[in-house]
């Protein structure tokens, strides 16, 4: 149908609501047709249902229903590149906007007369603008600036960021079943506030329509430009500077893809027989449908509160299993008697220990000297009278080890010991294990009797009744799916840390104690500000206990004091790295603000020191100063932000002969084995000073008795999730953290704390820690909420002490829906259940399922496990370590380098090496990293086997990596491709040397420890510039792997469009490829989703795939090949230069 026929059709269908548009539209049509007739041109039009894309970050649910669609009307004229575009709810209004758009273009080209706008404002049911805020304009400027839902959000964000006084406000209300979205922005130039108000549903569409109208109104006022293809060209100039973006797929493979799509009855957005001239600009290529509807998982939905019951003699509360042979059977009265008999036996044993055990008597006396003993009766009384109690105990008061014993001993003395089962949570596994051992020591009994612990990969479970179990918060949460049966008391320690898992637990416990008031919850912390927790638990009582520490001389020992004390002079390199006013985190450089009461020389030196520096030389000089000048015995505890800094400082200090001779340097990190962590508690050889390099793991709960000196960097590492991109940031800690760290000194005598930051920096620190829920990824937490049947994710997390931002809550629901983890009712699907139960992030779990289908479960489980350890495999100075290149196989992949090293170290499979042995000297590999990876890998594989996946998925693979001259290994190509599915949208494009381009356009570099970081004498040129990476730490991209553009197209890109002859991925990666081929490739995504869903419902399909599934799997393997898009182009090869020369010489001979 041509435009004239469309106009005739519309004129007969016009409704009264569009009558104003009908007259205006007829006038526009008359002008346009006269111009076309004059120039002998026949215009064409195209109508599509324009689904509102995910351009706004706050969204709810999945879209796609009829009411969620906009009509997109496009008018094209032969010989003209400009396209008139109109978007609206009705075809009538969309057509009018498109006509207006193209006539305004022709008017600017002086080909048609300008349109004289009607002074009576045309009201659009689509766009209700608050006309009282803005003057009506009589000008030739367009009302519509050609901005759409796909482009408006980005432009609005740019406008707000570039205008400091814009004061953008967003307000969302609900009236009956409709959403009312109100956006306003202050325009300083006009001294006016422009407001837009939209009403309707769903929320996502209303918000996007509001954005479109607001941006177009700004365009009308001349504050921003009209949208045009010129803007796209300007943006893509930043990235198109080489020929790497050319993709050419073999014709046979393309035909096979089309054949498969016909078998699957999937129609790509652009058909293979469609004329290229009929393909409109800005055509989206992604399909939004799956082949089969999702089958909901049968779930128990009766209760949204974790169930609880008191102890019973036929139930083991620690293992959540029924005891097959209870002491007595029959009925509940007999069960009650059995617990009573156990209680009398426990009372008798305790009395005998008090009377005959010298060790027990001695330890009771030692315990009685702790400050908390003075409050024992008060604590027990307040616990009896309240469901929730908060204990505020100063450092060293004994709250962590004593409160649980107070409760248990009270029950035992009352002949009710078997009716008491206590769970004590700790933030770290090292603290859970060390405290459990300490408490069992104080009770003069072996670990596993009345005291035990459960942490990941290690456990010693106590007796079934009358016992104390120490565990991490994560372990307790995972056990909640079996209920809290048999637990009488839950003690949550260190609540001030505000970790996401702890916040989740507090929400759960608040609901539980409201329903089951016999359950007792005791919250503990050394932080002074606990009012927020008391208020959260209905103003529950807080009992204070004084600490028991020697004074710490550190409040005034800041960087300026240290510089003066050690007479520090910065190196030239350090001086050059100083920023003038800002740090990497964009905060003020507080080193420039030193009080005038310090000598000028000190102030000048401090100003030369960059706050972002690692201060290794200062630490070195401080240790020498402690050794030579202070003449005080005692250990030194150094707080650093992460493992990278720990490893580098350790290497630096080992180079100093004085420190190496006089100090025993020990490392403390969560990824180390329990045996290695426990070394910090043991004495060092005589004449040596213990120096401990630790993260904030040593900040709370654990006590290293001989620590006298603390050196505090005042920094920690947090994991932010921004638009699904994981980024590790090094941030300043809070004043509460500083107090906790200072408290680690002074346990046995007066302590000294050295702060590697200025007093001004300390004054600018926040008082309290920022809740992790406010910035972390919520996808795993959302699945946990569903796994525990706790209701709607948004509603549940809104009950947190400080709820996450709304946009994060909407985003996690959208993400889980897109991943097919939730059905239309918000319940877990079979896929969602598996991803919730796996001990990895859902994106990695989904990647593993497809890897299992492709029979690559073993290598992928190794890589997923490695990403969980956060531990460096290669020892020593990485930039000088030949092992990384030896194992890389020239694959340009950190992940594949690790895989090769792991699989060659066969001893890890059999456990030949002890935890005490820290490295393979001959291979320069860390045994700790290998063994930790092995444990997690086995845990993941066992989970999948329990889900019913065949063992064949995890068969041992052997890769050559070029050792015997085999470089073409298609399975390694598949693994590289699947990494995109696991880590997207973490993509960078290599630019120059270590510099890379990110979508965010932020400055970033390849990490120095990467195999992709150029070393001296090597080339910084890559055959392809596309890389997927695991995480970002500050400006460094960690663990990267080269991938092909087809890998991103098939498994990654969340938006694929055809713009100005390019296939554009997520608005920043431009590919020169046949748009039909690209459309066919992305049309395979619903088939991949369907294959994953059917496989998790029946894993046996892996062994007996259908004919169509086999075709799909084979095509995926071909597309994953690095050369799938290199037809008639130079091939990608992983041979080294030396190998190529040898092959050339062989051919010549």
UniProtKB/TrEMBL annotation:
- From the Swiss-Prot or TrEMBL record, give the protein name: RNA helicase
What lineage is on file?
A: Eukaryota, Metazoa, Ecdysozoa, Arthropoda, Hexapoda
- Pfam family example for this protein? Helicase_C
Signal sequence range: none
Write down the superkingdom of origin: Eukaryota
* Recorded GO MF terms: 3'-5' DNA helicase activity; ATP binding; ATP hydrolysis activity; RNA binding; RNA helicase activity
List, for all copies, the residue spans of the domain called DRBM: 23-108
Describe the family membership recorded for this protein in Swiss-Prot or TrEMBL.
Belongs to the DEAD box helicase family. DEAH subfamily. Belongs to the DExH box helicase family.
